[in-house]
Design a protein that fits this description.
Strand content: 15-25%
Number of helices: 3
Number of strands: 5
Distance between the termini: 50 Å
Radius of gyration: 19 Å
Strand order of the largest sheet: 4-3-5
Helix content: 10-25%
Shape: globular
């Protein structure tokens, strides 16, 4: 079990994404997709809500030794999470409704 640095709720490794800080003086936060990068890691639910909470609480700086540049994480989440205003296509029902034979 891991704890999300945004919402502070626990989740399994498969539910969360691992983040690591890379760089010298002002480290940059990167998403460790394979969960194999060296160094201390922090965990975050892949949601904009948790990202916003973590940024607001300054959790990245505490968890990852002063790292504050989270642009790579924002780009990753934008690619993974579909926009909320995207209409969902309604498919055909798997079974016809009762009384409908067509």
């Amino acid at each position: 079990m891991r704890t999300c640095i945004g919402c502070r709720k626990q989740g399994s490794r498969s539910e969360l994404i691992r983040l690591v800080a890379v760089g010298g003086g002002s480290p940059v936060v990167l998403v460790d997709e394979r969960r194999r990068m060296a160094g201390r890691g922090a965990w975050l639910h892949p949601s904009n809500t948790c990202l916003t909470l973590a940024t607001k609480r300054r959790a990245f700086a505490r968890a990852l030794a002063g790292a504050s540049e989270v642009t790579a994480v924002e780009q990753y989440l934008a690619a993974v999470i579909p926009p909320a205003d995207t209409p969902v296509k309604a498919g055909k029902p798997s079974k016809p409704e009762s009384g409908s034979e067509n």
